[in-house]
Amino acid sequence: MDVGLTHYLILSAILFSIGLFGALSKHNAIGILMCIEIMLNGANIAVVAFSRFLAADTVLLTGHVFALFVILVAAAEAAVGLAIVITLYRIRETVDVEKADSMKG
Amino acid sequence: MDFGAELAFWIFAVIGVGAAIAVVAVRNLFRAALWLVLSFFAVAGIYASLSADFLAVAQVLVYMGAISVLIIFGVMLTRNVQRGNPFNRAWPWAFVICASLMGLLIFVFHDTSWVTVEAAQAGPAINQGDPTTSEIADAIFDKDAGFLLPLEIGAALILAAVVGAIALVKDD
User: Which end of chain B is more exposed for a tag (fewer CB within 10 A), N or C?
Assistant: First the structure.
């Protein structure tokens, strides 16, 4: 079977859905952060696959630039997210997102 | 695609999906972080099979080098490894939603006949298999059609993130 754009897009959809499931179904805030990184990776695979397969025998570089910006934002998000988790742990002695409910109405 | 790239795709796709499932399923959070590193590595291999060499190296440096170390630091500092990483009460609903989203996405991706464009009208492009590093630099720093403003905004974002992270965790 010839590997083409569809294979890469289905791989990215599978990774995105696994990450979304983890992000929705976990107690631990760090576990949720890990699953968000998986989601970003899945989306990035789709972008790079489009830039490779949209024009025959050439690689469009705009998709690569876009993927680089996604990596940049993911790095910033990981730094701030882990700082928030560590602050939460200091104040509440827990990283369970269901116990961080003091703003719940 | 030639046979080697196809074989690389299948190997890295299986490793990446399996490691991602392990990240979600494993109870020990530290082991989940190690599976996450393996998943990042498989995604780097996928980039390489798409002839995106610079992105593959950036993935190894940024994700496997920096973000995974940050996450493992977070796991260690919050010392919740033994209590593990259990599922919450709503996980069957989350599973149903995510499984149907995955089915819908796969159906759409499989049924769409993607159009191909002429390379000349689609911005900067190179021949498949050529090194991408200097071409990406040209695409970003091009004076007319480049990405200079997003790059500067990204630099400001990183600076703000670093200052914010320090301000959040410092002792007063």
Answer: C
The interface pTM score, or ipTM, of the predicted complex is 0.92
Interface test with A, best of B3, B102, B107, B136 (most A CBs within 10 A): B102
Question: What distances in angstroms separate CA A18 from CA A15, A92, B97, B126, B164, one per listed residue?
Answer: 5, 29, 11, 33, 30
What percent of chain B is predicted at pLDDT more than 70?
94
Tens digits of per-residue pLDDT, B111-165?
A: 988 877 776 666 777 777 788 888 888 888 888 888 899 999 999 999 999 999 9
Q: Which domains does chain B have, with CATH numbers?
A: 1-86 (1.20.120.1200)
pLDDT score of A59: 83
Chain A hits for B98, CB-CB cut-off 8 Å, are 17-18, 20-21, 24
pTM score of the predicted model: 0.91
**Distance from B5 to chain A by nearest Cα, in Å?**
9
Q: How do the domains of chain A map onto residue ranges?
A: 5-92
Fold entry, domain A5-92: Helix Hairpins (1.10.287)
